[in-house]
Amino acid sequence: MKKLTTTAIAVLSICALCLVFGSASVQAAPTDGLHQYTDTYTVRHPYNLPESARFSVTAGPTYNAWIFKGDKGFTPTTGTGPRTEMRWATNWSGKEHMWEADVMIDAGSQGSAIMQVKSNAGFEPVYVQVIGGGNLRNDNGSTVLASNMWGKWFHMVCAYDPVTGNGRVWINGALVLTRHDPHPLSTVWYFKNGVYGITGSKSESHFKNFKFWTR
Question: Which segments within 69-180 are labelled E, that is strand?
């Protein structure tokens, strides 16, 4: 009886430890506490070309956006660089919103923003940019968020919370960026993704499985 009791206690102790460490290792998902919504988009592309010259939707659906060095801006008078971007229609303020998708960037794409949380006042707390070697960074930061990302699908989640002022990015489930960039709660924000700006000869990105979340 003593041997059985000792064994039982040992087993229970191990189970308890497993539960403790197992619970500690469980992390909240980025979408916890949020609900999903739907959105629509328009395409911003070089003004002198038809949309189909720089954007396509293929089976899946997969959304494909590309630009070449020397392309014009999206209006005749813009002072900004070339782009082909999906500009999502929802303008929002006051509470956290989140963008989610699977993304692939073609080899050679560099100097191009692939996703932005943008305001109508020009703020951009999240500005995920691909640079040489397929590395990703936020804005002009020196910190590499992910390395060697050319030519493979990855899952990316981007969010901004006007209440806390925090912009965050997750790549393949890992939180890779928290940027504190507070602005007035009345600031209007929107999402866009594609390719904006270029330092190589061609930049192209692909997106699928979009989801949008808010509190």
Answer: 83-88, 97-105, 112-119, 126-130, 136-138, 154-161, 166-171, 174-180
Nearest to 58 by CA among 211, 214, 206, 195: 206
Per-residue model confidence as pLDDT tens digits over 65-75? 999 999 999 99
List the chain residues with pLDDT less than 50: 1-25
Rounded to whole angstroms, the Cα distance separating 80 from 48 reads 15
- What domains, with CATH codes, occur in the chain? 30-214 (2.60.120.200)
Tell me the per-residue pLDDT of 15-37, one tens digit each, with 9 for 90 and over. Answer: 444 444 444 446 789 999 999 99
pTM confidence score: 0.88
What DSSP designation does 5 have? H
Positive or negative torsion for Cα 53, 212, 60, 138: positive
CB atoms within 10 A of CB 10: 10
